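Following up on my earlier thread - several people asked me to post the actual chain instead of describing it. Fair enough. Here it is, all 303 residues.
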Amino acid sequence: MLRSVTFGMLATIFPIVSFLLFFMPGPSIWLGVKRGVLKAALSTFIVSIIMGLFGGLQFMGIYLLISMPIVVITVILIKEKKKSSQIIGINVLALVLMAIIFSINLTYILKIDIVGQVSLAIDKMGKDVITIVENAGMSQLVGSKNEIYQVIKLIKLSLPGTLVVSGISLIVLSYIYATNMLHKDNYKLENRLRFIDLRMDIKALIPISILAIVLGIAYITKFRYFDILYVNAISVVGFLFMMAGIFTIDYYFINRMPKPLRFIIPILVIVLFKGSYFYMLVGLIDMFVNFRKRFKRIENEKI
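Reply from S.P.:
Thanks for posting it. Predicted structure:
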């Protein structure tokens, strides 16, 4: 529980490490596997209350609503010795179902236009940024404004895809972190998922092909929300291939490079050299080649 609170505090106080939020349910999952589901649920509840003191009531409510099902489901399925793919898949389905119920509740029962509210919040954020730019007296202000408006438009279009990626990341990262903690405690795990095991399997071509057909039909029929559908589909698929490429390359750096560097280098490559396309290409090629199987670092090496 202390680790969860620490992750949450650091992510809340220092936005640059906000990715730590995705690991927060991990310690509660670890506790649940070791001590039972009730203690895992209690831990999640206490963590959400403590984080409410730092992030506010909205943060507390959202964290509790999302994390509680993930923690409970993951603990139960680990104890039942389910495969990693099943644990992640069931969690994703549960999250999607919860999102649908939550959306219906807001839209038709509470009469709250959640899409409109989010859109207004993003517009306000953009206006605040423009105000800061104006107060700073920056040159080429018109160009800066146009760039900000373009970013706001892109954020609005890609918001659904961002939520999908965030949800999947929360499930996968918290699960990997929890199983890593259990492994260090010598807990017998039937299935353990590691970052270096993550790759885009050739079977992923099936849903990608279906998605491509749907996009083609939407384009031909001039579907009203084609732009939103297209941007989010490309964003999600591109992100998955990019992460697959990062993990493929990282496999060859294990025990040869300090962990902080293995984390920092991909970020620098992506930010400074626009290396996201490079990692996507590696992930795409690995789908067909499977580098880690064909080119092992050391024969029969145990990592």
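The two ends are 28 Å apart (CA to CA). That should answer part of your original question.
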